Automatic annotation (TrEMBL):
UniProt feature, compositional bias: Low complexity: 1-11
Region (Disordered): 1-20
Protein name: Sugar ABC transporter substrate-binding protein
Record-linked InterPro entries: Bact_solute-bd_prot1, SBP
Species assigned in the record: Nesterenkonia cremea
Pfam families tied to this protein: SBP_bac_8
Length: 449
């Protein structure tokens, strides 16, 4: 029988078990109210749920492979089938928060872990799936899988590709300008000047979506100050955003803008429509800093460019004198599945059966690799060597496994209540409307909820 709300006694038991076991990483959410998820609490009489499991997925990239896997599961398991709905990235983020808070979440919830997952756990919106996913955990790259584990319990498991952020480039444009792909920040500034002289936009930036700006700020912060520079923000330090490395990183972002590195209309470029990647493929921009999903989307949307030999990729430049290791990564270790507490027992069982029996099956992995996506699994070297995309996948696989630190995207790592303020203030920095110091003052005011 479908439940209209989870058991409050069960929720209370989990709260007691969680207690105050918050480490420094989880401290920022300790005082959050359930209202920040824009809906009723899990014990507050939310709407009813169906016995049929459902999942919400995103558009583009590897997601068609995910949808196809659900179709195969449904054919083989008609009594445990899923309904699947697809959303653009930004639309999904808006809708899932409302759905989770109101008790109307899909059975399988896509997330990025970080602060949002901690809030889900704090308010009992997702269930502990440690036992059900034990065998799956043994197959995963631990640095990726660990993002779904809180105090030893599994609340989320990676379900698609590892997603580090890389610098992509158009080799034809570099040849035309007589430029070399930059490996340091000073070299990047030099090639910006070279491309400006050729009337080519050095860099595409989807400023209309705002979150791509985070990639610049977070990579520069890491390269300048190392992983420790952002730790104060995560730990809820009242002055965490004033770390010198963050301030210098934002100064360098404004330096890029002032140097003419981006299309003057970058504030209207949309990442959901892959407009920044299209600028690279069409020869309007020489480089773009984007996630690993850009590779598979380029194969799908711009196959001629992707297969021309001019589509290149590299790691983010080193910053001379910086404390951060140039091998560090920024991005999303993967998207993760969590199971909704508000789902019926029948649909929860369907979801955990899918995770334990189906996720990262051979066909799923083969399809991911065939579309240029890298599963977060150990022991893929031979399979990668046999793919048509060996160059990119081998590069990404080595980089991920060798990275000393993999910084989760800032908008996912922080307390969810800060996300909107972060994006708004970062946009103002890139538009030159506030200084880095004003950014820090505004963001410090959000620390602690």
């Amino acid at each position: 029988m479908a439940r209209t709300s989870p058991s409050c006694s069960r929720a209370a038991s989990r709260r007691r078990r969680l207690g105050r076991r918050r480490s420094a990483l989880t401290a920022p959410i300790a005082g959050l109210a359930a209202a920040s998820l824009l809906g009723l609490s899990a014990c507050g009489g939310g709407g009813g749920t169906s016995d049929q499991a459902n999942a919400w997925v995103l558009n583009g990239g590897v997601w068609p492979v995910v949808e196809q896997d659900f179709e195969s599961w449904n054919e083989e398991n008609p009594e445990q089938s899923f309904t699947v709905d697809s959303f653009a990235n930004d639309v999904y983020k808006e809708r899932i928060r409302t759905a989770v808070g109101s008790g109307e979440a899909p059975t399988l919830i896509v997330g990025w872990t970080g602060g949002t997952l901690l809030e889900y756990i704090e308010h009992d919106y997702v269930v502990d799936i440690t036992e059900e996913t034990a065998e799956l955990q043994d197959q995963l790259i631990s640095s990726v899988a660990d993002n779904g584990i809180v105090d030893g319990d599994v609340y989320a498991v990676p379900m698609n590709n590892v997603q580090p952020v890389f610098l992509y480039f158009n080799q034809e444009l570099f040849d035309q300008a007589g430029a070399e792909v930059p490996t340091t920040w000073e070299e990047l500034l030099d090639v910006v000047e070279q491309f400006d002289e050729q009337d080519i936009y050095p860099l595409a930036l989807a400023g209309g979506s705002r979150w791509p700006m985070l990639m610049w700020a977070s990579y520069l912060t890491d390269r300048i100050g190392g992983p420790e520079a952002f730790q104060g923000v995560v730990e809820g330090d009242p002055d965490g955003w004033s770390d010198p490395a963050i301030l210098e990183a934002l100064e360098r972002c404004q330096e890029l803008v002032d140097a003419g590195a981006f299309d003057p209309n970058f504030a209207s470029v949309d990442a959901d429509q892959n407009e920044d990647a299209r600028m690279l493929a069409d020869g309007q921009a020489a480089m773009v800093l984007q996630g690993s999903w850009t590779y598979s989307r380029m194969l799908e949307d711009h196959p001629d460019f992707a297969e021309s030999g001019d589509f290149g990729f590299t790691t983010f430049p080193a910053v001379e004198g910086g404390q951060g290791d140039p091998a560090n990564l920024v991005g999303n270790p993967a998207n993760f599945w969590s199971v909704s507490e508000s789902a019926s027992e029948e649909s929860q069982e369907t979801a955990t059966d899918y995770l334990s029996e189906r996720l990262f099956n051979d066909e799923y992995v083969d399809q991911m690799l065939a579309t240029g996506n890298l599963p977060p699994l150990e022991g893929l070297d031979e399979q990668i060597a046999e793919t048509e995309d060996e160059e990119f996948l081998g590069f990404a696989y080595d980089v991920v496994r060798e990275a000393p630190n993999f910084q989760l995207s800032w908008d996912q790592a922080i307390d969810p209540s800060q996300e909107q303020a972060l994006l708004e203030n970062l946009e103002l920095v890139f538009l030159g409307q506030i200084t880095p110091e004003e950014f820090a003052e505004n963001m410090n005011a959000t620390q602690g909820g």
